[in-house]
Amino acid sequence: MTQPILELQELDVFYGPIQALKKVSLHINEGETVSLIGSNGAGKSTLLMSIFGQPRAAGGKILYQGVDITHKSSHYIASNGIAQSPEGRRVFPDMTVEENLLMGTIPIGDKYAKEDMQRMFELFPRLEERRTQRAMTMSGGEQQMLAIARALMSRPKLLLLDEPSLGLAPIVVKQIFATLRELAQTGMTIFLVEQNANHALRLSDRAYVMVNGEIRMAGTGKELLVNEDVRSAYLGGH
């Protein structure tokens, strides 16, 4: 059996006295798209951030390609092939699209910057139209595209996406998920944290459901889409 590219083993994470994650175990295989769904405040974003050590795990292990990275620096993790597109986009507002994309090359250097930037413009044509525009002047959807593209500029082996549909119009959400599907079809390994369970489960090979900092359910995307508990809690009964 092949080793997962990422494995969390009984992860405990605290914010001060409050336990945010409780004995969380999950794994992601190379080439898979795996999503983590759950209500707002369930601990999904905390889990994603803890992979980068912010916050640090108080117990358990995080293994990446079989190596224990639980206490490694964020720079070590980024330069070894994990990239994150954070919740709320967090682009550099005063920088242009091109400058933001170049920031994504910091973990690996700019050797491939020119060809990778062209690839980002093919993936997100809107960004090419806005290449000299400052990020702060762009729409929320354009900023989300930029955040994902910036993460991809480090040529990651594993892409972490935190709530990519948050606050976006339905038509833009469709565009974002169509691009994610395109990425998945190229063999990119994706770990997606998402409140929009319908889109997430349709995209995913497998998924986990988080409730109050614990994994309560797991299965294929198709299985969870038709699961009655998941439908009533996260899909509005549809």
Automatic annotation (TrEMBL):
Q: What is this protein identified as?
A: High-affinity branched-chain amino acid transport ATP-binding protein
Q: Which Pfam families match?
A: ABC_tran (PF00005)
Q: What SUPFAM superfamilies does this protein map onto?
A: P-loop containing nucleoside triphosphate hydrolases
- Keywords assigned by UniProt, alphabetized: Amino-acid transport, ATP-binding, Nucleotide-binding, Transport
ATP-binding as a keyword?
A: yes
Quote the InterPro entries the UniProt record gives. Answer: AAA+_ATPase, ABC_branched_ATPase_LivF/BraG, ABC_transporter-like_ATP-bd, ABC_transporter-like_CS, BCAA_Transport_ATP-bd_LivF, P-loop_NTPase
GO terms, biological process? L-amino acid transport
